[in-house]
Structures are given as C-alpha cells and as structure tokens.
C-alpha cells in the first residue's frame, strides 16, 4: 500500500521499546523437496495459472486448498456462496479449534461477511467469534492431529458499500465502475508454532491481511456485463440463460484470492516473460491504458531480472477509486488510485512500481504485515528506487531517495524515531509512514552501501529463492543478507531494526 504523503506530518515524541517481531524465524530450515510429477487433478487444473517454467511450484508443498463458489449481485452489492478448505495441520499440536479471519467485518471495510453454516469433515460444528466478528473459531468434532488433513466447509454471505472510498477501505467498495471485493471469504488464520493461532485484533494502520499461501479454485456467477478480475487465471466460462455467466478461476500458490467485477473499463494487454499483463482503465482517458501498461510491463520485466521470476501467468492493474491511498497490492492484481492517471508527475509510475514490488515483498515472500510491516513496505519502497535506476532515470531515483531522507529526517527532528520492528499498532501520530516506508527504504540503502552492489544483488535473489511462498521475520532477512555478504550485520540490524539508535542517514 502507499499512503498519502500528508501522513508524513504530525509527529510527536513517543518512546518505544522492544522488538515487534511476532512471527518466529521460519526459513532456511526443512527446505521441501520439489516434486516433479503433476498428477493430482486439482493441481493439473491450476497449471494454467503458472508460467510454464514454474508449474512445478504447484507441488513445492502440499498447499492448503480453497474451493469457492459464489454468486454476485452487483445491484444489491451482495454476494453469497460456499467455501471448502482442505487444510493440513503442519504444527506439533492438536487442533481443537480452527480460526478464520472475517476481514470485511472490521469497521474500515464498511461492509459485512457472515458465515451462515459450518461443517468440519462433514459434521456440523459450533463456532464463536472474536473482536467484533472479525474472527470465527470453528470447534473441531475431533482433535486434528499433527500431519492430519481435514476439510472445512462454510456457507457465507457478504455485502460491500458503494461510493464509500472517502470514508472506508476503497478496496471493498463499488465505485467508478470497479466493484472491488477484497478478502470476501473466510480466510484461514495462521498458526504460529510456539505461539498459537493468530487471533490478534486487526490494526487499521497498514495492510490488513496476514495469511499463508494456498491454492484456489473459485467459480463466480455474475451478470455477463461485468468483467471479472481475480488473482487467478480463467479456466472456463459458461454463458447462462438468464443474462448471467459462470466463470471458473484457478490460482497458483497465492497468499490470498482477490476478486473484482468491472463495468465500463477498457483493457489493454501485453506479454512480459510469459506473463499476460492487463491494464484496466476508465474509458474517458484512452491514453491512460497504454501509459499504465507500459509502466507495469517495464516494472515486471525489471523486477523479474533483479529479484527472480514472477511465476504466474497473469498480472492485472486496475484504475480504481481508492481516494485515501495511492495504491493497494493483492496477489496478481494491484489497484491504483484513479486520480494518479491524470497527473503529470511521477506519482503514477512510482505507485505502480511500488505495488508491483509487493508481488515479491508480500506476495511471494510473506511477512506479518500487522507486526513487521517494514519487511514488505520498506523493500517495496526501495523497489521504487531500484526501478528508476534500472530504467536509467537516475534523477528520479535520487528524488525518491531524497524524499525518504527528508521524511525520516523530519521524523527524527520531531523525536518520533522508532525501531523498524515496531508493530504498526504502536506507530500512531503520523509515525507509521515515515518509519515503515521512509526509514524502511533507507535501511535497504544503508545495507547496500555496507555490503556492496554485488552482495546486495545476491541478497535480493537469495532472499526470494529461500523465502518464496513462506512467511519470514526480521531475523530471516538478516540471515539472508549475512549469507550474501559473508559478513556480520548484527550491529546494523540492532541499530536500525531493534532499537532507534541515531543511525547515519545513507
Ligand atoms: Zn506498500
């Protein structure tokens, strides 16, 4: 996400202690074997969602699997459907409750998501909710032992607001021809070994979703005059008798499944390294489609080279009414604030580069956005600089860097500095953006200066290779950087991430 720069102001002094690290270090252990044979029918269907060279990623792990069927009623702003999740207990403890996030029940969404029935292994189960219905816990009919798989089935209904982006989350809203229905389904919470289920209340500041990779097979029924855009690829479409369509989408290993229905937008597309890139823009600005497509294809190509391959067959970018923020990332889809397309400055280009950076930092390499937001936001922000460097616009690369320096300097002058590991919940009073984005980006610039260009490039590639499809924490990033430079970075990490030492601004 990119927030408005207005939030850089209004800083006050707050002293913070401790690390915000909530997720235990997870990577560089028990690397799963990469299977080569794709024989499972569920997996076979998913292959169209991957670039051909990355089809084997589907069997990288025995992913949890969602099968969702929903019916959309855009006129009533409602959807209803059912969901089946086949999940495996990958922990060392029995599950007696399985928790799901119901994100749309958070007040910021301005809508609703209600579970109307629930079964586990075909047995009706009781449930309870937490934090104003933003979490639902299903009591298992029998303990789910470590290594055991189970099947959860739910029926649910949801509704979104309309024209609400000025007061609520623009990605769950119908406005300007885009019915964006982010996080519309019960989403499995993460279980952290040694800690338990992630049942924390949602913090409004920053991104909401904290989830693990899964495979999705989603069938959507909707009126035929609505264009469906999702995190997956379209497997089949049937036109029904009553002016409706039934479209089935399958995904690669994705961190969540995004869905939007569009009306009146115009699509332009291009191919990048085997990925179909599609830009949807409002019909009143014919140049906007070509311009945003050119930026998106360039960013994807550059980041493929710099970070490692984006493995999916599709990527979509949608002009949307976000109003309170510039851009929002989902797996395989990004939303860009509509007004940026009319500007004559670099904000559209910068925002697209940032959100596409998130396809690696958040999408492929997961982290606790509600606890250590700097891990994805810092690196997505630094990706803006890498993008401009790689298209040889060194002036703009310098301008981006200078903006982060200025924001962080102002934060320090006001006594608002904080460790990068500070959870967003503790970064009130206008400190979230300058700490997580500006100081976060500057950390990566300092790291690059300290370990040198070659080691920094090795770090970026090695980090993605080791951490893709996983969820990492700060110490995992430290370890990846130390492996790349064959050096010790404890002091730097301590000063930037764990404490708020007055570091030299790079
Ligand atoms: Zn972001």
UniProtKB/TrEMBL annotation:
GO terms for molecular function: aminopeptidase activity; metallopeptidase activity; zinc ion binding. The keyword Metal-binding applies. The active site is at residues 355, 437. Residues 293-496 form the Peptidase M1 membrane alanine aminopeptidase domain. It holds the Pfam family Peptidase_M1. Zn(2+) binds at residues 354, 358, 377. Gene3D superfamilies: Neutral Protease Domain 2, tricorn interacting facor f3 domain. Keywords: Aminopeptidase, Hydrolase, Metal-binding, Protease, Zinc. Its cofactor is Zn(2+). Binds 1 zinc ion per subunit. The keyword Transcription does not apply. This is Peptidase M1 membrane alanine aminopeptidase. It comes from Chloroflexus aggregans (strain MD-66 / DSM 9485).
